[in-house]
Each structure stands twice: as structure tokens, then as C-alpha cells.
From TrEMBL:
GO biological process, one term: lipid A biosynthetic process
GO CC annotation: membrane
Protein name (record): Calcineurin-like phosphoesterase domain-containing protein
Record flagged with keyword Protein biosynthesis: no
Gene3D superfamilies according to UniProt: 3.60.21.10
Lineage of origin: Bacteria, Bacillati, Bacillota, Bacilli, Bacillales
Span of domain Calcineurin-like phosphoesterase: 58-220
Annotated Pfam families: Metallophos
Family: Belongs to the metallophosphoesterase superfamily.
One annotated GO molecular function: metal ion binding
Amino acid sequence: MNTISRRQFLKKSAQVSLGLLGTASASGIYSHWVEPYWLEVKHIDIKLRLLPPAFDRFRIVHFSDLHLGVYTKSEALTELVQQIQHVNPDLICFTGDLLDHSVDYISEAVDICSQLRAPFGQYAVLGNHDAFGTRKAVTKGLTQSGFHVLHNEHIVLKKDAEALYLAGVDDPWVGKADIHQALRHIPDKACTLLLAHEPDFADEYSDLPIDLQLSGHSHGGQVRLPFVGALYTPPHGSKYSSGLYQLPDSRLQVYTTRGIGVTRMPVRFNCRPELTVITLKSS
């Protein structure tokens, strides 16, 4: 039987410990300095049964959770705007949390977001963090930058005499959400998209005539470990935390983007910031 001396054992233990320490240090550096700034432009096709033929291959850019502030600077927003312009979408949708905890950065956000334009417009809803910066100020800033903020209301997109409805609900968690007001006068058989910051409220909307809900809020968890998943997701953002979901016994699908910025901790791991490019298709 081969045996090792105490000195050999201590040497090997030290080597293993240093290796683990090096791996942990590298992961820490990567999750703090690399991944939060490594934007993924994610393309996805979503089939909608009631989509009018005129809107087949209609392209939507969806982004969320900028959290401009201490951790996410205007440079990240500038890169985002450049990527959106490169995609050349038909419609731009933002699902809340422009700021993190302060209105100090709102003028920068207005200047940069003012560069965004799409043929069918730019639309937004507010998120829970927007309440920290006063909802009135955030609404004003988004409006000044060319976004129409949907407060429990909807608009009609028209193309070749056909209609696609886009509704937006106020933040269901900290705002004054009224989904029935947002959907009022929309025909039941019309194709309807909904902007709502927190994804998990989709369970409350599953019996309503909505085809696709676009949400953010969860950040995808920010830190996702292999074989484990997200270590933490916020309230109302854990069930539908990232990606596309089909609700059972419902026409409603939910797409949750991982968002752009960070909050609480300035890290991302296995959960890159996401700009989503959605192509609608008739099923």
C-alpha cells in the first residue's frame, strides 16, 4: 500500500486550497468586472395564434431593469442604445426600473434614450424601483425621451387595416395596477400584448384575453449556479424568472428578460444582461 508522509499531505492540501482559492478569486473578478457588462442580444421567435397576418414577422425590442445609479452607469445605456439601433426594430418596449434609488441620473437617461426611435413607437411601464425616484419624475423623463408610458391603458397598432393591441399596467407591486382598465374596450378575439414589470402576476391574468406578457424585474436571478439555478429571485419574480413560458389552460405566454443592470449586489454570474429581440409569428 502506498502511503504519503505528513509533509506530502500538507503540500497537496495546500495546492488544492490554492487552486480553489484561485478559482474563487477568478470567479469573483469575472462576476464583478466582466459579465455585468457583457450584453447578450437574444433573438427569439414567438408564435401567437391570433396574430393578424399583417404583423407576421413583426419585430419587437424588449429591455428592462436599467437600474441606472451607483452600479450601472450611462455607458451601459449608451451601448444598449447602439445595439437597439443596429437591430432596427418595428417597436421598442421597456418594462420598468429605469433608476435604482435616485433621480440623479435621470437627465443622462433622457439624453441617451432620446436617440431611440421605431416606426411603431416606444412604449414603457414603470417598475417597483421607479418609486424610489418618484414615479412622476420617471414618467416625465421617459416621456421627454420619446417613450409613451402606459398607465393602465392600451394603444392600437395598425398595419394594412389590421390591428395589434399593446396594453400596459401600472406596477402591480408598489403602484396602482388596474388590469381591467388597461384592457377595457379591447375585443376578446383581438391579439393583445401586455407590458407588466413583475412576471409572476401573469397567474392573475391567465383568464384574461392576453396573448403575450413582456416582463422584467427578476434579473434572471443575477447569479445562477450550474445544477442549482438562481440563488435569489425577488418577490413576484421567481416563478417566471427568465425566458418564455406558456401558462396552462390559457392563451397567455410570458417572456421575462434578464434585464440590463444590477441591484443589491454589483455582480452577475451565468446570467448575462439581456437585450431581447422578439419576432412575432402567426401560428
